[in-house]
Amino acid sequence: MHNDLVAALDIGGTKIAGALVGGGGEILRRCRRPTPAREDGATVMAAVRAVLDDLAADAPLWERVIRLGIGSAGPVDASTGVVSPVNVPGWRDFPLVDEVGLAVGALPVVLVGDGVAMTAAEHWLGAARGRANALCMVVSTGVGGGLVLGGRLHPGPTGNAGHIGHISVDLDGDPCPCGSRGCVERIASGPNIARRALENGWRPGPEGDATAAAVARAARAGDPVASASFERAARALAAGIAATAALVEIETAVIGGGVAGAGEVLFAPLRRALSDYATLSFVRGLEVVPARMGADAGLVGAAAAAQAFSGAVGARPPASSV
Predict the structure, then answer these.
(1) How many CA atoms lie less than 13 Å away from 222 in the CB half-sphere?
(2) Hey, which family's this protein in (predicted)?
(3) What are the Cα distances from residue 68, in Å, to 63, 100, 118?
(4) What CATH number did the domain enclosing 105 receive?
(5) What is the pLDDT of residues 232-272, one digit of tens each?
(6) Digit-coded pLDDT (tens) for 117-176
(7) pTM for the full model?
(8) Residue 7 host element (H or E)
(9) Is residue 266 within 8 Å of residue 232, measured between CB atoms?
């Protein structure tokens, strides 16, 4: 029905956002709380419940909600409803879908990873709209992603398919917190772009900003060390994108997240590097484009995923049907 709404949660290490999303992707109510990421699991869950309470406080809108979608930092296991976000230590094998289900009663609950949620949003309303095969990426504090294959969101059995950040692109590279070595995330995430620049002699300005955004500003102004750090990040991304294209024949790679805000400082060397890695005939036409959905991608995508996968494996059914 056109009046139906979907509740959405976007859960990360910094914030827990919630929204009520209409059938056209419009956000009718939103709220957020900081994530108490260093606290125990119960405290983090209390913040999630507070966001849900804020959404439910608008009774006329809440009565129209037919399901709830969650996009969470990962790893997630959508098949069991369990999450273990790297940046929320208090949640290890945490039964998030069951706990949210206790708070929302009869509403079906669908869980996906945050990269899959962003992909759902970009495919529905953003830069991957109309594309049959796409990789959508979030390049920020970490590097995540999701896949559209055959015109449909493809989360995989556990909701993590497309997690490009942990493809190894440097076999002798730095150890990654995931346990592997030389991962895309270890080279191309914002903190690692800044780390590499600092290690090679770049120094922040008088304001002391040592973030990837500051490195991007320095690169834009012609700083060779800052530019080299972005060049290396771009090559890591290009290698991961080309490997994905060779495996599943994507036609488009969509890149969002804070690091993508560097604009051509990132995209120009990325497109150049892609020509070095995407050399097979069936991947040469691969295009790389910036994401369009911005900060709302996680919420809109969680809602889209809930619509796509409600009733599928990994969804918590309504309490009345258990």
Answers:
(1) 0
(2) Belongs to the ROK (NagC/XylR) family.
(3) 13, 9, 16
(4) 3.30.420.40
(5) 999 999 999 999 999 999 999 999 998 999 999 999 999 99
(6) 999 999 999 999 999 999 999 998 889 899 999 999 998 888 888 999 999 999 999 999
(7) 0.88
(8) strand 5-11
(9) no
Mean pLDDT of 70-83: 92
Nearest-5° Cα angle at 189, 183 to 195? 100
CA distances from 92 to 37, 95, 96 (A): 12, 9, 10
| SS3 state of residue 157 | coil
* Backbone conformation region of residue 152, classed left if phi is above 0, alpha if psi is from -120 to 50, else beta: beta
Alpha-carbon torsion, ordered 288, 294, 299, 301, to 10 deg: -20
Let me know if residue 22 belongs to a domain: yes
146 and 270, same domain (yes or no): yes
**Token pair 């590499």 in the structure block, residue:** 196
**One domain for residues 12 and 86:** yes
Q: In the block, which residue shows the tokens 């929302």?
A: 104
The CA distance from 130 to 31, in Å, is: 30
Residue 269, amino acid: P
Instruction: DSSP for 72-105, please give it.
Output: ESS-EETTTTEE--TT-TT-SSB-HHHHHHHHHT
Mean of per-residue pLDDT scores for the chain: 91
Q: Are 261 and 217 contacting, i.e. CB atoms less than 8 angstroms apart?
A: no
CA 318 to centroid of chain Cα atoms: 27
- Distance (Å, whole) CA 280 – CA 259: 28
CA atoms within a 13 Å half-sphere pointing along the CA-CB vector of 111: 29
Structural domain including 58 reads 5-113+296-321
How many domains are contained in the chain? 2
